[in-house]
Amino acid sequence: MTFDVAIVGGGPAGVAAAVALRRVGLGTVLVEASRHETPRVGETLSPGVRPALARLGLPVAGAVPEAATESAWGTPDLTTRPAVLNPYGGGAHVDRAAFDAALADRAETHGATVLRGCRVRRCEPTGARSWRLTTEHGQVTAAAVICATGRGAGLVRAVGARRQAADRLVGVAVEYADPAGDQVTLVEAARDGWWYSVSLPPAHRVVVFMTDSDLCRAGRYPDPARWADAIGGTRHLGERVRGLRPRTRPRVVSAVSHRLVRPHTVRPWLATGDAAMSVDPLTGRGVLTALLAGEAAGTAMAHWLLGDRRPAADYERGLDARYAEYLAERAEVYGRETRWPHAPFWRRRAASSLAASLTASSTP
Ligand SMILES: Cc1cc2nc3c(=O)[nH]c(=O)nc-3n(C[C@H](O)[C@H](O)[C@H](O)COP(=O)(O)OP(=O)(O)OC[C@H]3O[C@@H](n4cnc5c(N)ncnc54)[C@H](O)[C@@H]3O)c2cc1C
């Protein structure tokens, strides 16, 4: 199979890139390892997601409006921010696997070829101008590649790129059966990190503990008995899950913030979404950032194939600028929690907050 552009990864970024490429009539294949059959994290859509999806002609499948955000951050007491007070309207909660599956279906409607259950094992240059992808089910060749493989940034070594990580954040996630559902996002800081919980359609709740990978191991958070014990030590979250039955065992997912560092390439190749730049789930903007970056990468790649590389260079500079802004914002938000100044999780973030303010004050 031969295409103009092969996109590896059928999450929000890959789908947005596919739609942008199809709009200018380029032959596009979206190669996705999964069939979107297993649970995925990243279930709160920020208010900006709806207009971004509408612009791309993509659906918001099965979204339940978010009623409010409650947080115990910097203080043991809960602060409530009702969604109606947000000038952009409220966010929404979705079942991410179902949401992502619906996006990939719509990429097909836009004319992209979608290969599901098809992991790309290798990506390498072939001939004078093409790329060859070796998948579980055969080979695909294309003039250009967009790598949208998510936070793990799989396959970026094909062009000698590497991740520059800003932390070691992981999430430990457990789903509970929760027929009542409250449509509230709860965030609660703790000594080793912070918790969040959201109720999701149709009748479950996801609870995630965010911590650093070494603290996760030392604290044995993925152990079900230890997990229950840690929830028992919270002030607000424990009340929210009292009496609920876990549907899954604790599983650990990477939540590292990184920016991809890549060398100059002659053959058209771009990374997008979390593969190019990933942000802390605390921002609640990962999906929006991925959609915007995916669309921009698709547009830049279309120009590159016509012989104009400038939009691709602008795209990379745009990501650099957004990542610098994000690091400053992250430092400011973590700096608001001062209750555990000697605990490693918070001490590390206070140090990066200090570094960010020194960088800002020394920038002319
Ligand atoms: C704990 C946690 C909580 C989060 N909460 C939120 C939230 O509430 N709101 C929010 O907006 N964001 C949240 N995020 C972030 C959000 O999930 C991501 O930013 C977003 O999914 C990025 O989209 P993407 O398309 O770049 O990558 P992904 O969604 O990760 O998609 C990448 C796709 O590539 C596929 N793939 C990978 N390797 C290959 C391969 N070799 N071959 C073929 N396919 C491959 C994967 O199967 C996957 O479908 C959270 C993240 C974490 C870790």
From TrEMBL:
Domain FAD-binding: 3-311
GO molecular function: FAD binding
Domain of life: Bacteria
Pfam families with a match to the protein in the record: FAD_binding_3
Family affiliation: Belongs to the flavin-dependent halogenase family. Bacterial tryptophan halogenase subfamily.
Protein name listed in UniProt: Flavin-dependent dehydrogenase
